[in-house]
């Protein structure tokens, strides 16, 4: 399973507590994307450089890891570079078309096809395959969490940690829910109304009948028409038509610590020097200055970066 890394002009989706299984629609979304995904997000014409790639490589270098599993590898978007770095690589993905493309790409690096397989981060047995006879030095999971239901986050965290050797490195990427406080669009309203104010509870209080009028006034302060919804191109559901949620960095950190990680850090990326809806006033300036802000440990990333990587060691 993979997800489109949030490009400079892309934004957020709220929490999702659902009984519906999102995986069939997510699989359909990516089935037509296998051939172009890498170019779309890592190629020369990508809307924003893949700065997270170097964050991942640097964390792996610092950890001394020699083996790595990518849970949700897509078309080997990251694994192809880790193979070049000399790591022993493994990966699985929810979408069979992505697995086929990953095998094709990594064949050039002499990676056996059986080291890439179809699987789900929700299933513990997906983290094992031929060629893995022990826990790995590192497990990474990039672009998968947006497609995971709220109630399944803890299980995914447990599975990632369990597949890692004691002292090994875990990295999980997510879309930053706090970025919604900066964007001044419908996601700002969603965060204020549902995460902070919690209007559902407020409306049940005495005098709560006035809440809808107050919320209408609040909505008027934001661009509720932005961002546009990304739809499929070949009849499949588009990225914003499947579950593609954001995560609260602080709550996710707590969940991974409870799953067995220590020394947990939050590394922010895809900075925005201004709210994205203002980018069209000076596109080149906006892109240049946003890139100049890239610093994974800058506290402003908590609000001005659209994504983050959680990293920590297994106890």
TrEMBL record:
Keywords: Methyltransferase, Plasmid, S-adenosyl-L-methionine, Transferase. CDD domains: AdoMet_MTases (cd02440). Gene3D superfamilies: Vaccinia Virus protein VP39. The keyword Transferase applies. GO terms for molecular function: methyltransferase activity. Residues 68-168 form the Methyltransferase domain. GO terms for biological process: methylation. This is Class I SAM-dependent methyltransferase. It comes from Azospirillum brasilense.
């Amino acid at each position: 399973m993979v997800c489109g890394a949030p490009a400079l002009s892309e934004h957020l989706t709220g929490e999702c507590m659902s009984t519906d299984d999102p995986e069939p629609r997510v699989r359909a979304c990516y089935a037509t994307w296998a051939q172009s995904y890498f170019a779309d997000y890592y190629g020369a014409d990508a809307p924003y450089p893949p700065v997270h790639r170097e964050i991942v490589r640097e964390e792996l270098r610092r950890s001394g890891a020699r083996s790595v599993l990518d849970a949700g590898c897509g078309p080997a978007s990251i694994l192809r570079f880790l193979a070049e770095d000399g790591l022993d690589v493994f990966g699985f993905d929810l979408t069979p078309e992505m697995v086929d493309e990953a095998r094709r790409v990594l064949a050039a690096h002499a990676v056996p096809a059986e080291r890439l397989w179809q699987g789900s981060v929700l299933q513990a047995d997906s983290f094992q395959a031929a060629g893995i006879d022990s826990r790995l030095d590192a497990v990474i999971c990039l672009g998968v969490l947006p497609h995971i239901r709220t109630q399944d986050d803890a299980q995914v965290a447990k599975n990632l940690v369990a597949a890692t050797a004691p002292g090994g490195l875990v990295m999980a990427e997510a879309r930053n829910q706090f970025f919604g406080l900066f964007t001044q669009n419908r996601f700002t309203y969603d965060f204020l109304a549902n995460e902070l104010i919690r209007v559902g509870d407020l409306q049940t209080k005495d005098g709560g009948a006035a809440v809808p009028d107050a919320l209408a006034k609040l909505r008027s302060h934001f661009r509720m028409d932005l961002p546009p919804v990304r739809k499929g191109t070949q009849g499949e559901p588009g990225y914003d038509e499947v579950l593609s949620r954001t995560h609260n960095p602080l709550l996710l950190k707590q969940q991974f610590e409870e799953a067995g990680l220590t020394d947990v850090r939050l590394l922010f990326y895809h900075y925005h020097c201004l709210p994205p809806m203002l980018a069209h006033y000076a596109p080149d300036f906006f892109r240049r200055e946003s890139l100049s802000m890239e610093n994974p440990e800058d506290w402003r990333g908590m609000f001005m970066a659209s994504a983050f990587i959680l990293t920590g060691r297994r106890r």
